[in-house]
Amino acid sequence: MELRGHLRRLLAWDGWANREAIASLRAAANPPARAQRFMSHVPAAERLWLGRLRQEATLVVVWPDLTLEQCASAAEAMTQAWPGFLDGPPPVDLDRSVAYRNSKGEPWTSTVGDILTHVVTHSAYHRGQVASELRAAGFEPAYTDFIHAVRHGFLPAS
Fold it and tell me: Which domains does the chain possess?
């Protein structure tokens, strides 16, 4: 599978996993505030990275205080946005360098492909924190492993 197809599949997994994690928060009678905060960060950080990739000057609050409904809406917006960014028209150049400033104001340059890989892994990291917080509070977290999604046909075929 070529890199674009692989990234498309990873981003589809990311959208599915975000929906599953949000569903597990909804299923908890009173989810831990930290779990909801971690989950709210996921689509906000994805929106920040999409803005950087598009070279937009849009201000994004990366640790917003969202309701579960707002979080679900933001996550779904990102799920819809990624394929359009990746596939164009015109299709994005995955080797293109993107200059940006991080949250500390430091200048950096990364390739589009590396940024998209970061987006997926960063989101997985924070979904893990959501799961940990839910389990510690006695709730059942979502099972969002990539291979689980593949085995059960939750992703497009490769």
Answer: 3-151 (1.20.120.450)
Q: Quote the strand ranges of 14-154, DSSP E.
A: 97-101, 107-111
DSSP bridge pairs for 111? 97
Q: For residue 31, say if its preceding peptide bond is cis, omega within 30 degrees of 0.
A: no
Within 8 A by CB and 6+ apart from 50, the residues are: 78, 81, 82, 85
115 close to 9: Cβ distance less than 8 angstroms:
no
Entry field: residues in the chain:
158
Query: Contact 20/144 with Cβ under 8 angstroms?
Result: yes
φ, ψ for residue 75, nearest 5 deg: -65, -40
Map tokens 């970061």 to a residue: 118
What gap in Å lies between CA 94 and CA 70, rounded to an integer?
30
Q: Is the pTM of this model over 0.70?
A: yes
pLDDT tens across 75-102, in order? 999 999 999 999 999 999 999 999 999 9
- What residues contact 132, with CB distance under 8 A and at least 6 apart? 141
CB-CB contact of 8 with 85 (8 Å):
no
